[in-house]
Amino acid sequence: MGLRYQPLAAAMSVVRASTKLVRGPNGLLETRTMDEPAYDHDGLGRRLGLLIEGAATNLLRYSTAFDNALWEKNSGVVVGPGAVAAPDGSQTAMQLDLPGSSAGADGLYQNVGGLVASEIYSFAVWMRAVSGTADITLGGIDGPSAHGFTVDETWQRVWIAEPASGTTRYPKISTTIAALPASVLIWNAQLEAGPVPTSDIISNGIPAARACDDVRLSPGDWFVQGRGTLVFDLHTARDWAGIWRIVQLYSLSLNDDHLDLGYDSDADQLRISLRSGGVPLVTQSLYGQLAKDTRHRIAFAWDDDVISVVLDGVVLSSPDGFAMPRNFSNIVLGSFGGSEKAMNGHLRNLSYWPEKLSNARLSELSTV
After folding, report:
1. What is the pLDDT of residue 9?
2. Measured distance CA(247)–CA(253) in Å, rounded
């Protein structure tokens, strides 16, 4: 991730009370230590940016040990060691042979309690065919649901999201849709709350958790109070819910003076919020629509009487009639206060100017 026009890299800090798995430059999953920035890459080793995620828990147990007794198997289903390296380069992948019996419904599953009925959960697992291609079905969060995938000899993380049944919840791998035998390699199954899986969390005998990424800039001499421009180059999550944040500038408390840019999922619009002395001055969700799993450039500029949000060259500005607070001492990137409502996406680049740029310049900077 580049941080341009001011020495932002030196001002950035990351606090995370857990380790985290992301892909490294070699395309393999690697562990980032506590408080280490999680710069992510794709399978070819191309840098995706800083991955900022909220806290999450893998509700499955023994997420890579599919031969554990907690993973139940229908008759004819066989699980054993795999002969190919896992996505993290280890020899922990396992081979799953599905017989295609019972109209393909026979498979591998784990019963899960404690889910909230009708709430959305996602189920993900790394998978590849032993040879050629294989047609696989995932389901079971919402009873006997079925979602089909075709995998080849390349590792891919397949996933579904659906509401939890009020009775039977058993995330399952089968061949229900194709009803044909299949042999695949599998690694790290993950069940978590939310409409899309986050980065991998490996569990053993109990569910395992990953902490939120608290990413901040310390507004030192480089930061000018009362006016400025931030331009975000980001890649959005594959899905989202609620109001998630892109940046928050605030004084001592989020309930005091603050300037906030986020995304309102219900309105499907970028959202700004401005408070001064604890009094809301501007709260509006009408500043442009983001596409999921897509790269965007968003310019965010402010001064007395105006806040501008610029997306795809279109400048949208707030009503006037206010003085911008001049006491921001905290800048949080990609979450609400560093603890929740995270963007769950990649921050590819961030630029700062100590003034509100012209609308023409903002329009140029917001175009991918």
Report:
1. 80
2. 15
| pLDDT given for residue 7 in this prediction | 59
What is the distance between the alpha carbons of residues 311 and 308, in angstroms, rounded to a whole number? 10
**Residue 170 contacts residue 111 (beta carbons within 8 Å):** yes
Nearest CA-CA partner of 245 in 232, 264, 258: 264
DSSP code for 103 = G
Q: In what order do the strands lie in the sheet with 134-139?
A: 72-73, 108-109, 172-174, 134-139, 147-151
Beta bridge partners of 215: 14, 333
**Contacts (Cβ under 8 Å, ≥6 apart) of 56:** 192, 193, 194, 198, 201, 209, 210
Cross-strand bridge partners of residue 137: 148, 174
CA distance 328 to 272: 16
Letter string b/e over residues 239-251, b meaning 16 or more CB atoms within 10 A of that residue's CB:
bbeebbbbbbbbb
Residues 6+ apart with CB under 8 A from 266: none
The torsion angles phi and psi of 93, rounded to 5 degrees, stand at: -70, 150
Q: Which residues lie closer than 8 Å to 12 by C-beta, 6 or more apart?
A: 3, 37, 215, 216, 217, 218
Q: Sign of the CA dihedral 172, 176, 177, 183?
A: positive
Distance of CA 198 to the CA centre of its chain: 5
Q: Which of 144, 148, 154 is nearest to 109 (CA)?
A: 144
d(CA 349, CA 368): 12
Question: What gap in Å lies between CA 177 and CA 136, rounded to an integer?
Answer: 8
pLDDT value of position 197 = 98
Report, as ranges of residue numbers, the positions in the chain whose pLDDT lies below 70.
Answer: 1-7
What does the DSSP 8-state code read for residue 11?
Answer: H
CA–CA–CA angle 41, 53, 332 (5° rounding) = 110
Distance CA 2, CA 350 (A): 6
Confirm if 176 and 74 have CB atoms less than 8 A apart: no
The SS3 call for residue 87 is: coil
For residue 16, what are its two tokens? 């995370």
